[in-house]
Amino acid sequence: MQTRIDKTVIARPTDLSAEWLTAVLRAGTVTAFDCEPIGTGQMSECYRVVLSYAPGAAGPESVVLKVASSDPTSRQTGLTFGVYEREVRFYTEIAPRLTDGKIGPVAPCYHAGFQPETGIFDLVLGDAAPAVVGDEIRGATVEQAMLAVSQLGRLHAPLLGDSAPAGADWLNVPVTGALIRGLYGGFVVHYGDTMTVEQRTVCERLVAGFDDYVAAEMAGDRPMGLVHGDYRLDNLLFGQPGADRPVTVVDWQTVSWGPALTDLAYFVGCALPAPVRREFHDALLRAYHDALGPEPALSLDEVRAGVRRRSLYGVMMTIVSSMLVVRTERGDEMFLTMLDRHCAHVLDTDALAVLPEPAAGPTAEPVPPGPADEAAHTPGEEPLWNESWYSDFVDPGQQVGGWVRLGLIPNHGTAWLQALFCGPGLPTIAVSDFEVPLPNDPWTLVTEDFEFSHAAPTPLREYTVAVRGRGQAYEDPATLLHGASGRPVDVTMDLEWRTDGTPYQYPVTPRYEIPCTVSGTVSVDGHSYVIDGVPGQRDHSWGVRDWWNMEWVWSALHLTDGTHLHGVEVRVPGLGPIGIGYLQNNGAVQELAAVTARESFAENGLPLSTELRLQPGDVVVDARVVGHAPVRLVSWEGRISEFPRAWVTVTTADGRHGVGWLEWNRNR
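^ that's the sequence the OP posted. Answer follows.
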């Protein structure tokens, strides 16, 4: 059944009508229907729609309606991560090629609607009932496993050897070594006490050589195909007597294009307890190969070799999945089961022998940004695409600090400019405007109230900022979080940031950070300050950023022994925390595997202190707030995020000291 993406979207079951269902199903006239929720999805919701027809008319007894979450934050998460678009496009562009009008393991799609601006979508799918869902912890029967791999072979066969899907951007879902290293740090925190020596060996070998492993698996001589990405028992519905299909594969939100044997290796590695899997391993691979048809695109030996190499995918998915969902007791049991079975599969197939050694070792320094990265970048089409230049400093001798940011949001036609200055016993001074018309020149901003310019005279070595105009002074900085006005003051800043370390480019996002020393002058509220070689940092980022969909704790700290610490813990609703960052001393950079933050706040919304824990190195930092410079972020739809920034003094558990800046993004 060929289905196209429709601009008419069913957002909630209450939007359904008998007339609409009649038109969509293209069967008999629907006279009535009942809806009941099924499943417990976090980013999507599913409903069974039971149908009644006019006398003499016929059609499916029931269908399944899948829609975006009714929770705005969860819906935005699904939109941000692209999972809604992938599933809708799978059913409209890929699924019709897989079944060719025959009954297969994919439910027929009667309607697909998607609004890329809002994330609202719908899918009207054939019902799998009566069916039972597989249980990843209990495992499959041998009969279920044979059926699942045979249906998988039928699913893969039509696209094996077809190079066309490889060009679809939405089917390419990159996972980088930096991301895996960050997630593995959190995985060890959660599950390290229960991991065996063998399991640690498998995980650490994979994490250390992940980028080289991915490069080898994506080489031109590897067989490529459609990858469900999460082909396991919990996503398989086994039909009972009366069902339309023997197996229905659900949750195509992780679909991609990649190494063809990924799904088979992932399923075989965990569907059965290790002793049973060892006994039937070759029979399962033969059943899959037989299902590819009389002239299969792969030989049985190629299937065996591919499953051996891709057995490592199950270990990767165990790490990733466990860190991207809310932690539960059943979840812990499932992920430990997955770890045990997938690691055993890797060891049984001797897959570590085909895992490339990391080309430069696991402690190799990341690739730094280039001089061209200092320039403005071509905007993407996403509504929340933005480009941001940010810089800060702390003068511990004079007990003052400040930060400046220019943000360009081209698809809303606006720019943001913030320049704040603060210290104990001083009012917080703010030049802040979130509604500046987008400038033609990204290096200059002029309004009736202020003039701003910035430049990188020597790319990656020097950066300058100049601000002149009218700002506002706030005796109580907490009022900045509530959109209040302060008293007018004159503001002048002429500052230069000189690189004092190694520029660091994040592998997982288009963003780089540079530790610096800062010099220049600041005049605010009738007082002048000479800033001379004090610690600070600057960064430059571009891409989609949604301040109202996730929270984080970001830090840029500078110790008196020359160590620079930069870490961020990202908190996405419905997912586990993700920590990334780095530390450096004398220019040597070490990426962090985990960042955790535990903060305390006053009732007025301002931070008091934060404890940071950074891995590796067991670095523990106690940060105490000295100066407050917060802002309030309001989205175009009215969502609010409180964005307290503060400069802090820090003490590490081993007795070192320093200063720096922290920010806490808090969705409200």
